[in-house]
Design a protein that fits this description.
11-stranded mixed β-sheet, 22 strands, Alkaline Phosphatase, subunit A, single chain, alpha/beta, Gyrase A, domain 2, globular, 18 helices
Length: 525
């Protein structure tokens, strides 16, 4: 009997030890998630400008965080809107509905901006906005559902699309800088404009300071550092023109404004102050000055990365003091790179090049279809590299859509500067061409064009109606993904990862459901 009692006592001790160990080892759910999206951050620039950094920004992310050095989006040609939507929903435009910053509304036959919504007037702005075009839930939405609405979800960005898509459907607030007044504005879709934001605008409004702001190199180290082949020169930029706020929003200076407003939100709204997890999404800018060529403004770009390093250090330090690094999960990544390229004459170097006019292609295609099917406006419009057909006309004339699309494809492929042509049906099937998966993921049946023209690398895509132009390049450019803070074990991972894995990874850390259209497994960290 004594032996049996001894064995029973031993078993209970082991069981209690195991139970206690498991309870002790259970990872703590963060009180605050800070999701930092840096517009157009590039891995090559991040590494190149390392001598300009201190210890508390990018170096801290690399040394104390889980560092994925090769992140990429699962679809082609991301822009700020489609990138933010993918990051927050864990899925591509094919499912989330945000194919870019604008597309054609089939009902009105007018271009629509991705967060436009006439139903919800702006607060302190004339822009009417909501996330109605975002077809699925975001990580912030799922956090709200899991906490029965108690979690706070805010998004702060220089631009409207990043702010609204970052806040999602259930957020408490989306704030962006107005192009005309420089005020932090929002939409009445979300909660009322909070008192803390009103007090901030009264006390620290950019409108009252911008005329005295000068952007010049951070220090002598930036001035003496020369990464680009072209000789960068020290600079001073002032913001005095009638588009001064738009210029300001495309500089390193705007990140200081994001930090100031974010600190106010953390402190006054009480983000991360209790056991209920809150989410704050911030957007920074790391592109070239005023969306111009990086080669033309090389010194400005160097300074942007040097300032970003300090701005991240400043935010990390503030959050560590107010919330605690062990209670905060930071995610830092990029929208991908889609910046302007230097419009140089490649022909003098005998590099294949030319200008492909989508406007002329639209006119020529319409003339061809008139010759085949009779008079009519068969091509509605062109947006970016996509053509939208008049589907009502095609239906009314009892034309076979598959035949029309095949004829369009056969005609357009003959034009100079066209590498390939993808019809909506070809993309829907998603087969027959290596690498078509990324093109298909970027396509959405409800808002994408009927024909996508892939312009040859080195050619300039031009739209005479909108005066937009872009140089076609297919060069691979990676960007980083960092996790820092609560429960993160430092490690550098060189295996490529996809950004749609971020949302399920955060969901796992918070012990909530992943967004409802997210098919990806979480990353191991």
């Amino acid at each position: 009997m004594a032996v049996n009692r001894y064995r029973l006592l031993s078993s209970l001790i082991v069981l209690l030890a195991v139970t206690g160990s498991n309870a002790q080892d259970a990872p703590q759910v963060p009180s605050l998630v800070v999701n930092i999206v840096i517009d157009q951050l590039r891995s090559d620039y991040l590494d190149a400008f390392t001598p300009l950094y201190g210890k508390g920004g990018f170096q801290r992310l690399k040394e104390q965080g889980r560092f994925y050095s090769q992140a990429e989006y699962p679809f082609s040609s991301p822009d700020q809107a489609s990138a933010m939507a993918c990051l927050m929903t864990g899925t591509s435009p094919y499912a989330n509905g945000i194919v870019g910053d604008r597309w054609l509304d089939r009902q009105t036959l007018r271009p629509v901006f991705c967060v436009d919504d006439e139903t919800y007037p702006g607060i302190l702005t004339d822009e009417k906005s909501s996330p109605k075009h975002l077809a699925v839930s975001t990580i912030g939405d799922e956090l709200k559902v899991s906490s029965e609405g108690k979690s706070l979800v805010y998004s702060i960005a220089p631009t409207r699309e990043a702010a609204v898509l970052g806040a999602g459907h259930a957020g408490n607030g989306a704030f962006w800088l107005d192009d005309w007044t420089g005020k932090w504005v929002t939409t009445c879709y979300y909660d009322n404009y909070p008192d803390w934001a009103t007090q901030f605008e009264t006390r620290s409004s950019l409108e009252g300071r911008i005329d005295n702001i000068q952007w010049k190199p951070l220090n002598e180290q930036v001035e003496k550092f020369h990464y680009f082949v072209s000789d960068g020169k020290p600079f001073i930029h002032k913001f005095k023109s009638n588009r001064k706020y738009r210029e300001f929003k495309a500089t390193a200076c705007v990140n200081d404004e994001v930090n100031l407003f974010a600190k106010e939100a953390i402190e006054k709204a009480g983000l991360g102050s209790d056991a209920i997890t809150d989410l704050l999404t911030l957007t920074y800018y790391a592109g070239a000055y005023d969306h111009q060529s990086a080669m033309q403004y090389g010194m400005e770009l160097q300074d942007t990365y040097a300032r970003l390093d300090r701005q991240l250090e400043d935010l990390f330090g503030f959050v560590e003091e107010k919330v605690g690094m062990d209670k905060t999960l930071f995610i830092v990544t990029s929208t991908g790179y889609f910046g302007s390229e230097e419009q140089m004459d490649l022909s003098k170097y005998r590099i294949p090049t030319g200008v492909f006019s989508i406007t002329k292609a639209q006119a020529l295609l319409n003339m061809y279809l008139i010759a085949v099917y009779g008079q009519g406006n068969y091509v509605e419009t062109a947006i970016d590299n996509q053509l939208y057909l008049n589907l009502k006309l095609i239906e009314n004339r009892n034309l076979n859509l598959t035949e029309v699309l095949d004829r369009c494809s056969a005609f357009l492929i003959q034009l100079s500067g066209v590498k390939d042509v993808y019809t909506s049906q070809r993309l829907s099937l998603g087969a027959g061409t290596p690498g078509i998966s990324k093109l298909r993921n970027a396509y959405n049946p409800k808002c994408s064009g009927d024909i996508l023209i892939q312009v040859s690398p080195g050619w300039l895509l031009k739209n005479e109606d909108t005066h937009e132009q872009s140089l076609s390049r297919e060069s691979y450019l990676s960007f980083p993904l960092f996790f820092l803070g609560a429960g993160i074990v430092p490690e550098k991972v060189r295996i490529p990862v996809s950004i749609d894995q971020v949302a399920p990874t955060v969901a796992q850390a918070l012990r909530i459901r992943a967004p409802n259209a997210c098919p990806q497994a979480p990353l191991n960290y």
